[in-house]
Amino acid sequence: MKVGTRHYRTIWLAEDGRTVRIIDQTRLPHDFVLADLTTMDQAATAIADMWVRGAPLIGATAGYGMALQMAEDPSDAGLARGHAVLLATRPTAVNLRWALDDMRRLLAPLPPSDRTAAAYARAAEICDEDVEINRRIGTHGLALIEAIAARKPGPVNILTHCNAGWLATVDWGTATAPIYLAAAKGIPLHVWVDETRPRNQGAHLTAWEMDSHAIPHHLIVDNAGGHLMQHGQVDMVIVGTDRTTAQGDVCNKIGTYLKALAAHDNGVPFYVALPSPTIDWTVRDGVAEIPIEERSADEVSFVQGKLADGTRTRLRISPEGTPAANPAFDVTPARLVTGLITERGIAPASAQGLAALFPDLAP
Fold first, then answer.
1. What is the pLDDT of residues 58-95, one digit of tens each?
2. Against a cut of 0.85, is the pTM above it?
3. CA atoms of 63 and 125, how far apart (whole Å)
4. Which residues are designated catalytic?
5. Which of 18, 56, 175, 317 has the smallest count of CB within 10 Å of its CB?
6. Nearest alpha-carbon partner for 156 in 233, 93, 83, 213
7. What fold is seen in the domain 2-129?
8. Domain ranges of the chain
9. Quick one: 137-357 is in which CATH superfamily?
10. How far is CA 105 from CA 91, 190, 319, in A?
């Protein structure tokens, strides 16, 4: 996607062919800042502290993190340490484990002298594969938007939660890929952007993406979605996912479950954009089995923003003596999901639906 007149991915190699360059998403939307990762430990920090976020991008960063580790220490001990440190950064998004296991399977049989080049090559492939997966998700999701546009006057109103945009992937995004393709075809669109407390990824990131691409949108508080659905102002919901079970349960940013309940009650289609590396075939019951990351209470108790004079600041919004809980994700049961938009087509949110599209992956 473009920032100004220049095309960017969210992660790429610098000119030296070794340094990994990322967009520091903690500085958006007010500052566009690039950061360089030169060690595996820096890649781990970037994931844990959410300089990068979104399941696909976390996986891509982990892949390059393993490459940085091999450049520093390609021994068996170095390989084991890289896998362990990166795996511990965030527990919920399954792409992290998928990418690390993929890298370990490739690198373990190789002699240490061959591991660095192989790791960098595979990390680049993971990035390219992610871009193509998201482009294909976009083409399948576009058909849904076109069908709505054909039967109603005015713009297609789409509600999305958190950021499943190009900033959450290597390029295109998952939930936003159909939106970008529809906009390119000239289909009238309007996007309702949930602010997505507590870290405000909707307000900071999705709104920035929509504004950068001149797509009509409004920022709304998280609790406004149900009201808009009651009044016929939402034609469809598209969200992303950090982990999807073999049964079709979807784990996504906290608050997604409430949007799905409101959509179900109001007859609004609720779609999940699902890249296949995000399917965890080992999990059946999402509510019972998916580990939910509990992040710092400070993310709830404080907000960051920009003052009128341009100063970036961080403000406490709760009493100092009030503790805060901060579960980062929730699970939407498959029964509330209209369909899963994958790179191979749109699947029913069920074990049978996923297995039919991915017979080569399903156990």
1. 999 999 999 999 999 999 999 999 999 999 999 887 89
2. yes
3. 10
4. 242
5. 317
6. 233
7. Four Helix Bundle (Hemerythrin (Met), subunit A) (1.20.120)
8. 2-129, 137-357
9. Translation initiation factor eif-2b; domain 2 (3.40.50.10470)
10. 20, 44, 49
